[in-house]
Amino acid sequence: MDTGTKSPAPGGRKDGTSGSGPRPPVLGLPVDDVFAALDTPRRGLQGEQARDRLEKYGANELPRATTRR
To answer: Where is the Cation-transporting P-type ATPase N-terminal domain (predicted)?
Structure first.
């Protein structure tokens, strides 16, 4: 049953924030370690893998900014 809630992406929280704890220096990691941590092959996700992640984590979109008046 789909409850309409999505799991947070690795390292993320359900409220859409990443938290305030220390984060690993991603830019200093070896590329293969990043791919392994994200469980992503170098060639990218295949169609079924991408669909599964879209279903699990939702679209990779930021909320629209509200306009100030």
So the answer is: 29-66
Residue 36, token pair as written in the block: 């392994």
Distance CA 14, CA 56 (A): 12
Going by C-alpha positions, the residue among 26, 8, 25 that lies closest to residue 16 is 8
The upper half-sphere exposure of residue 44, i.e. CA atoms within 13 Å in the direction of its Cβ, equals 4
Distance of alpha carbon 40 from alpha carbon 20, whole angstroms: 25
Instruction: List, for residues 3-18, the tens digit of each pLDDT value.
Output: 555 666 555 555 555 5
For the stretch 24-32, contacts whose Cβ atoms lie closer than 8 Å and that sit 24 or more positions apart, written own/partner, are: none
pTM over 0.85: no
